[in-house]
Amino acid sequence: IMLHSTLALSLLLIAVSSNLAMAIKKEKRAPQTLSRGWGDEITWVQTYEEGLYQAKKSNKPLMVIHHLEDCQYCQALKKAFAENEEIQEMAQNNFVMLNLMHETTDKNLSPDGQYVPRIMFVDPSLTVRADITGRYSNRLYTYEPQDISFLIENMKKALRLIQTEL
Fold first, then answer.
1. pLDDT tens sequence across 68-114
2. What is the rounded distance in angstroms from the CA atom of residue 165 to the CA atom of residue 163?
3. Which end of the chain is more exposed for a tag (fewer CB within 10 A), N or C?
4. Which SUPFAM superfamilies does this entry report, sorted A to Z (predicted)?
């Protein structure tokens, strides 16, 4: 009987401690869930409203990435985005970052339709920058993996436009 209860107690302790370890691990990894693979070192805001608030407060432009998990073009862009050091660094330091897997109610964020991937910039003055576009006339705000340097230029443009206009 003694052996049986000791075994039961040990099993209980193992179960509790492994659950605790998983809870602690989850706790530590919390911010990663918002990155969704776009960059774990980046601080991501959760909602568009939070993004607008942070942009205004920090005087940094908001970068909004619309994407879907099961979209192969989104996956390809995400990989290129996450692997590019210059983008990751700018995103960490100079932008308020948001990636969304659903549309916002702000129609200004879909001036030419609700396609993915779509990347738009919002000025700290809360103006959606419809003038910062990618290189495809049929989908103005889409980028492909080979357009990463173009996206970097657009990020710099978003930063430059704030400084000159405020």
1. 999 999 999 999 999 999 999 999 999 999 999 999 889 999 999 99
2. 6
3. N
4. Thioredoxin-like
Q: Is residue 74 classed exposed, middle or buried when 0-12, 13-18 and 19+ CB atoms within 10 A define those classes? A: buried
pTM for this entry: 0.80
Beta strands in 17-165 (DSSP E): 62-66, 96-100, 118-122
The whole-number pLDDT of residue 101 equals 94
* Second-level CATH architecture of 48-159: 3-Layer(aba) Sandwich (3.40)
Contacts of the segment 125-128: beta carbons below 8 A, 24+ positions apart: 125/56, 125/165, 125/166, 126/52, 126/55, 126/56
80 burial level (CB within 10 Å; 0-12, 13-18, 19+)? middle
